[in-house]
Write a structure and sequence with these properties.
Blueprint (H helix, E strand, L loop, with lengths): L1 H20 L14 E5 L25 E4 L4 E6 L3 E10 L10 E2 L5 E4 L2 E6 L11 E12 L2 E14 L13 E2 L10 H6 L12 H28 L32
Parallel strand pairs: 2-9
Antiparallel strand pairs: 1-3, 3-7, 4-5, 4-6, 4-8, 7-10, 8-9
Keywords: Cell membrane, Glycoprotein, GPI-anchor, Lipoprotein, Membrane, Signal, Transmembrane, Transmembrane helix
Organism: Arthrobotrys conoides
Subcellular location: Cell membrane
Amino acid sequence: MLRNALYLAAAVSAIAAPAAAQAHGEGEQGSSMGPVAFLWPQDRPWSSSEDNKAPCGSVSGPTTRADFPLVGGAVALSIADDAWNVVFRIAYGNNPTTQSAFRTFVPARVDAIEPGHQCYKAPTIANVAEGTNATIQMEYWSNDSGKDESFFACADITLVGATAFSDTIPCFNVTASEFEAPQSTETVIQAAPEQSTSDNGLSTGAKAGIAVGSILGASAIIGVAVFFAFRKRSKPADSESTPYMSQTKGAQSVESVPAAARQ
């Protein structure tokens, strides 16, 4: 119980700063990100004039690179609007500029995603040397101003061995429509009697904001849980369960754990 709580606490702390920097409140979509963006690895700067253009949907080339493990990697998404037919590809080299340079990375297509955050396990990358530069491409479909369109985003990486990878991937799954924040007092319930568990009336940006707010609020609860776990570690641990909230089909979605724990 204690180890799992620590893993989850570390993951929430890891995503808190990036999530705040890349605001998910109303109006964020269309100002600094498209309907979907990479949460990790960091994607190239977004451009509204280019995000429908292959291969990378950006006017910028590689600006930052994240170390990416050859074994036990994952890609994490920040989702501001409904999207479908999500495909991940990879190209090796410093700056791939043609669509033909990319090949399938995550084998299965993700049929549909909704506002929130999702994470997908990457396959083992074989027959590629440590230190190789590469680019992960995400292509997906979403509705922009009443029109279904394909979108592109890219994240630049450097491949490293498992022992050389020391980061914690901010990998967690939560959808805004499924997450129900706990009602701690009667006053809270009475303050919003018209609200229901559905997301009717919420903008897509607001729905994504709810997801982040719920996660950050949960970090305080996790901190208390860790404290009492230390105090009572001699007693039998309560069973834990983490709700599985992925709304996708065909691709494996994973929880956040440090890289070393996934070996």
